[in-house]
Structure formats: C-alpha cells, structure tokens
Write a structure and sequence with these properties.
346 residues, binds adenosine-2'-5'-diphosphate, inositol-1,4-bisphosphate 1-phosphatase activity, 2 domains, EC 3.1.3.57, Inositol_monophosphatase-like, binds magnesium ion, five-stranded mixed β-sheet, D-Maltodextrin-Binding Protein, domain 2
Amino acid sequence: MSSTAPLIIRLLASSVSVAGRAGKIVRDVMSRGELGIVEKGKDDYQTEADRSAQRCIISSLSSLYPKVNIIGEEGNPDSEGEIPSEWLQIEADKEVMLLECPSSLQGVKEEDIVVWVDPLDGTSEYTQGALMLKRDPWERWKMYLTHPLISIKWYLSLRHSNYGFLEHVTVLIGISVNEKPVAGVIHQPYFKTMVGEEKQMGRTIWGLQGVGVGGYIPAPPPDSLVITTTRSHSNPVVEKALQVMNAAQVLRVGGAGYKVLQLLEGKASIYVFASPGCKKWDTCAPEAVLSAAGGKLTDILGDFYKYGASVTHPNKTGVLAAVNDELHNYALSRIPQELKDKLSGN
Ligand SMILES: Nc1ncnc2c1ncn2[C@@H]1O[C@H](COP(=O)(O)O)[C@@H](O)[C@H]1OP(=O)(O)O
Ligand SMILES: [Mg+2]
C-alpha cells in the first residue's frame, strides 16, 4: 500500500477491502449451517457470523492502524486469541486509493479517529434468512425449534421460501474524526450481480465527505413519499411517527445499512425510526455514506449524533434520515412534540 496517500484515504481503502472479506465470512457461516445464536438482550441476538466477521475487521484494521480507536458491536475480540491467517486482510482497495483527499481531512492523525464497526447489521434478517434456505421441511422445523427469533405465526406463513431477507444484511464500517462521521462503508454480502455468465455475490458502497460515493448506481427519490422503517423492532411510538408522515408507502426492511441503501437507490426518500434500539455502530457508516451523497441523518429531534470514543452507545432518540435537507425538514416538522418529549425523556 502506498504510504504517501493521506491516512483517511488509506483507512477507507482498507475498510472497503476488509468489509468484503468479512462479507465472505458471513456467507461461509451460513453455508456451514451452524449459526451459533446467542441472546445478548431483549430482541438482540448475535451469531457466529457476527463474532467472526468482527474479529476479521478489527484484527485487520488494528494491525495496519494501531493507534486508531476501533469500537465494534460484539465487544472485545482480543479475548478470543489469534484469528485464522486467511482472515487478515491487509490489501487496500485500489480504486479508493486513487481518490483525492479533501483538504479538511489531509492532516488527520490516527489518534483523531474512532472507527465504529457493525460486523453484521440485520441479525434478525440473517437468522430468518437461514431458516428460509432450509428446503427440507423437517430440517426447517428442527431449526425453528432452536430459533428464538421467529413466531409460530410467521413460521407457518413461510410458504414461498426465498433469499429475500438476506439482502437486508450489511457489514458496516464508519470512520469518524472529531466526533463526526466523515467516511463509511456499507457492504452487502448477499447482493447478486452477473459478471458475464458468472454470478457474483456481494457489493461494497463507500462514501467520503467532500468527495462523494461509489459502488452503486445513484437514483433520484421516488415521485411519491415512500418511507422506510424497521421490520423487526416496531412498537406503538414507531408506528405513530410513521402515521404522521402522510406517506404513500411504507417500506419495512431490516438493518440501518439497508434502509440507507433504500434512500441511495431511490426506493424511499425518508427513514424514520422513533425508538432507542439503534447504536452508534448502526448509524456511523450509514450517516457518512448518506451525507457524502447529499442526504442527512440525525435523531428524531433533528440533532446529529456524536461519534467520539467516550459517547454512550445507544442512539436513544431514534433515527431520522432523508435524501436531502428539504425532505429531512419536512419529516422533522411532522413529528409531534409529545413524541419528541417521550423519546428525549422530558
Ligand atoms: N430493539 C433493538 N435491539 C437490538 N438491536 C436493535 C434494536 N433496534 C434496532 N437494532 C439494531 O439496529 C438495526 C436497525 O434496526 P431495524 O432493522 O429494526 O430497523 C438492527 O439491524 C439492529 O442491529 P443488529 O442487527 O446489528 O443487531
Ligand atoms: Mg446493527
């Protein structure tokens, strides 16, 4: 890797590369079929894929950038010993290495940076996708019995199994400088493309403040108002915030990363989640990529989250994101004060 390129460019290029490697780990765990699901808290689960992908990302980035503070969703992977050597990714993405660093980021040092890692955003969708992949009904039933996330009603409605939910899964790496997300990577391990006759799995979208975004084809927002929101963590307050938007359509999908992809690809124009469930690792990379594309991500009160090393992890006041300032202002003006008070604890 050229050591003359500015640090932010090298770190983003390494993050693009390692996110792809982590995505392969996510697919490999699924192919082996043993997800190793652990319940971390209410509606909060972790699988072998979350654990291994995080170890790959943190070990690789910290071997290259030892003074950068890296915070991952799944705690401290050092306690689990050495990682397999094939997980260590030290290559940098060649296209990102060619980017021009904006002058405001040229002098950034490792000590100024906090990287937020969500090795597998959309864990509910990942585990539910695993169940859908089991073609044999007996195998499915056995998996269901050991599956804490799925209601019997949902299980019985599973007639047409497909890959659907796995597309919602993303690997998120957000790079913040002085508390602000300035660069980010959203990798989608199950995105399918055809390269000639060959099916290729996975794509990586990146964004850099002052430069722009890459890895996908941008599209304008839909003509009518389409809102995207959670499909697995709803409650009456979340629903109330959706009703007041007067939307033509509500797109319920999994993961903060995938919802921001809906905005980037012109499938929705606003993302509303009036609930405390998301954490800093869920929003850092999506916020960086969305703002590099001209959008805005804040809490439900319209305030930006801060991403310094000492902040608390939960995004207590929800998520409000839009493809541009005008739509963000519209969404903010629709949220009733009583709902804002409820989330901010007033
Ligand atoms: N109540 C919650 N408990 C745990 N994680 C949550 C909760 N709500 C949201 N999240 C996290 O935020 C992401 C976006 O939420 P949602 O899909 O509901 O819109 C989820 O994929 C999940 O991240 P993760 O899957 O990495 O644990
Ligand atoms: Mg997440």
